[in-house]
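We both want to read discrete structure tokens more fluently, so let's practise on a single case. Would you write everything just below, so we can both look at the same thing?
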Amino acid sequence: MSAAAGPGRGGSSVAVRPPAVAGSFYPGTADALGSAILEAFADAVEPATDAAVPKALVVPHAGYVYSGAIAASAYARIAPVRSTIRRVVLLGPSHRVYVRGLAVPSVDAFRTPLGIVPIDTDARTTALRSPGVRIDDRAHAAEHSLEVQLPFLQHVLDDFALLPFSVGDATMDEVAAVLDACWGGPETLVVISTDLSHYHRYEEATRLDARTAAAIVARRPGAVHDHDACGAHPLRGLLQVANERGLSVEQIDLRNSGDTAGDRHRVVGYGAFAAS
């Protein structure tokens, strides 16, 4: 799907990536989408009153009926700092296009049914100096792992700019270098978009995902293998940085599609984690 042009300040045009999975992964109208997000938060794990403000979140990216509540369990943690966070560095796996390294888009903004999210162009320029980072709009055109996070962010934050990465065959060091370059302070939130195990029976998926969750909490990137999580590459990079910066990682929620809206014969696992 190609980017659309729209009016910018002073009459200049801006390039906008239109939504690709509105109406399939999540509702396609603003009213229905707002209701779906509220339903997800209603079924989320509520944060404790003394919960730490996270620097980074790990969230799933399936259709909202399957993983929305688990994602909301993580996003609820940043509601108290909704006016502080002004930039979101978002990394998710490239499902449809082969990417060597990490791909950023050339557009000026992403659009969802809830409105426009501007790209942080200064941060993009910084990221492009890191090894393995390149501009590739093909990797973003139909990618759902990033898009499905945006309505949650639009709901829980005030104004913010986005730096999205579609991550392909990237090394842990390449991902860690990008995160370090864009880490910032309390104004910057890092979000890793990943599902966990895919298409096992319920009991097997529960066992596998518990093992992966333990590795995430223990900050052991080498114990998170490609078959454990579709976003294993960006996830391992975050865990490396968490180790280097002395962050702790907390499991917030761990379910699968058999717990939400699917049968239990072939399930997909979903986890929510916070690093602070």
